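Subject line: Sequence and fold of a protein, written as structure tokens
Enclosed: The protein record, placed directly beneath this head.
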Amino acid sequence: MTTPRRPIWTGCAVALAATLLVVGGAVLTGPWDGVFLHRDFVTVPDPVWNDAVWGRGAGAPRSVPFDAVVAALSTVLPSGLVARGLMVAPLLLAGCGAAVLVRRHGAVASSTAAALAVLNPYVAERLLLGQAPTLLGYAVIPWVVLAARAGGPLRRRLMLVLAAAVPAALTPVGSLMAGGTALLAARGWRERLLLPLPVLALSTPWILAGLRDPGAGAVGAGADAFAVRSDGIGGTVGAVLTLGGVWAPGAWLESRSGTWVVLVEVLLVLAALLTWWFGRGRHRGIALAGTAYLVGVGTVLALAGPLLPLWRMLQSVPGVALLRDTHRLLAWPALAVAVLVAAGVSRLVRNTSPKRSVAAGAAVLTVATAVLTVPDLPGRMAREAAPVALPAEWDTVVDLVNQDAEPGERSLLLPWQPFRTTAWAGPTTFLDPLPRALETETLHARNLQVRRDGQTFHVGGEDPPYASQLAQEQIDTAVLRGLGVRWVLAWRGSPGVIPELTVPGPDETLLALDPVHLGPDWVVWDLDDLLDSASGQPRPGAGASR
């Protein structure tokens, strides 16, 4: 007879195998002291405790307190190990959580739920966006449900929800997912008011940081730019119904353009809906999972369709812009499909044959089916998300700034655009990692331009009002000094214009300032070294007339 623990161990073993299948090619390869530069997922060898870590810099606090936790962990563990843990943890937590959630249905159900919680188009597209940390919000959904539905007094459940939500609270989006789950899983109005409170308490760091500039990034264009869209042959509706449809083409799986992969996903969704339909009256958990799928999918499609004008207007409301990427809302439907299919397969096996061989065969078949929904994901992750070795010049550039940095000084990062692309890091674009490595406050581009369906959407609201002056081919150093900038660092070989820094010279000429460092990948100017702090004039030999 199956013991209560056996399904859990079986499911967690499947979750581990599925996790290693997906990210093993990225986390189990060297260089072991390398960094990850994959779209939004960027790491540095020695993250620092600067103002941005606490959300005191410009822009919305999307990584508060995540960056602070990473910096703290990197003081006791190698940063490469921390980064690998951040890629593994969300998948393993999600798979094990789904397995525990359906443990009473047996080992077949737990292994099925674990596999489908890790191997699905939703997880694939979030990973390919470089958003493994925000998947922590997805990963804690089953754990928050378990905490909210645990036995015992309300005080005990409040503490369990608090513990379950800790990983999700590392990012604002994760906090919203955990809080929303606690609200949905609660019994009665009293619990609905109280169970989300522990998540609210954990959200204090990013809420307080966001109050500094509650309108940062709150522009209507974000609703259009980040709405779900077709990622294959099924159109937008088909993409969302099968848990895909992310806004960024770079995160689409090529396999979703093939009929058989989409057909497999459609069959899984149909199996989930059939389980819900026939089991909704007997099991409240099955009814809740089916509702989560239908409401989640319906909401996402509505916000990309008839409700888009309203959603566009609501972006100006503080906090709403956190959910402008509506593909994130498919977290609940994705886990609902995993749970429902697991329950359905388990019931089918019990009604068909009591033999263990039949159960084992069913488990293997469903796990293989899960793999077939994202067959090209492991290869993509191995190619695009693997660590890279930083040029030796990185240490020279970072030390140049950090060893002489003074409180209140700023560094300007150029070219003035948020993403970088370099030959040594591969073809994938990535967020500039220098703000995580420099002890000074950094000025860098945050506004995005998203091109889709023949249109370009300017998602602004986060760049400073003087940003246009920093995107010119010439920049007056007097302007930079007025902004408190001492250091100017430019990426060579990355798209964009590296401007010339100038100061007024005699007879209305301009002096082009020489950098203090000029290497193959970066160029650095120190305005304190090139300008006399008292007179604001160039020191002798500091530049060349042009």
